[in-house]
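ok here's Cysteine protease:
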Amino acid sequence: MLGDCRAGETVLGDGRTGETVLDDCRAGETVLGDGRTDVEGVQEAIHRLLWFTYRRAFPPIASEAGPTTDKGWGCMYRCVQMVAGNTLLRVLGRGPWMSPEDQKKNQGCESRLVRLFLDCVPPYQPCSPEGPFTSLPDLDSLTGMLSIHELATTARQRERRVDEWVGPNSAAHALRKLCSRFPRQCPRDIPRLVVHVAMDNTLVITEAILSSLDEHSKWRPLLLCIPLRLGLSEMNPIYVPALKASLKVPQSMGIIGGRPNHALYFVGHFRDHLLFLDPHLTQPCTDDETTFHCDSPGALPFAQLDPSLALCFCCLSEEELRSVGRALQSVILDSESKPLVHVVETPPPESSWLPPQEERTGEGSAVSSLDAFDFVEGAESEGTSHSDQLADDDEFVIIE
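and the structure:
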């Protein structure tokens, strides 16, 4: 994403906005996916990212009496929409990963992607993922596939209402389940994205590879989400260098997390501040493309970050996945902080899967809580990966 946006010696106050932060950037020290190094380039790249926010006056969710706005509870869903939408842009080489000239020539591509997330349409009717097809499904059949309606109803469990706030783990799992419904053949410019959620702060390479292979053993674009908990009620500062390093990994798609009662999508960092896109603007439900772009980011000190978050990476090949694994092992482990993620080739034996109890509950450990109820509906089938079997962490997430 935007990586490291360094500034001069000016000390920022917590009230500084992202736009002011960018004014302090030194040319040549900003890391961008499209190679731009100037302040204007940072702002332009941010504007070209997809931005999803609260909406109002959309069709009711789940029932005729269901909510018609996600204001106050849907911010984490909007954050995973931003991760998914911008990952799709990256897969297609669009957005910040495209030159301004090519961007003008390919505006229709972004319009087609945005339709996946629209809330202002009748309830989405899933396509059959099975083939063979006599023709490709049209775009209308996928409109709203990743809408707030689909995310909220997919994440709903037991007695939970659709309008309850969820943490990054549940939101990532809901996105994973929705993306598994992509038909085997998709319309033009709609990549068949797969989401893999690495649980227990452990990335198992072989499991992620198996998730990414289609029925013909061909690689599908992979969005890798790694939920973590970096402290108890507050962020443990020992992990900050590693978080900064994770944002510099070439495949980084940012971080979903935030602060208490406030989910945010982090796309880069500037000294001791994270740069973010904020979903907390309530807009009318519309397909107006201008409402899906933000002119400047916000800025949040690392010290105010809630410890419950998820790292996100886009892997376009097995080699890119392994490159992420190597980066998590080398760049992050060498960044003068405790490790964020354990990377292994194959799952450890069942008896050794969990770290010691004191590691899982101590303030100095990077863990995802495993003690809440299971996210996956129904009985598990043979061959289900650890990421599908492990429990949801929402009972322990501090952000609300």
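+1. The chain has one domain: 28-127+136-396.
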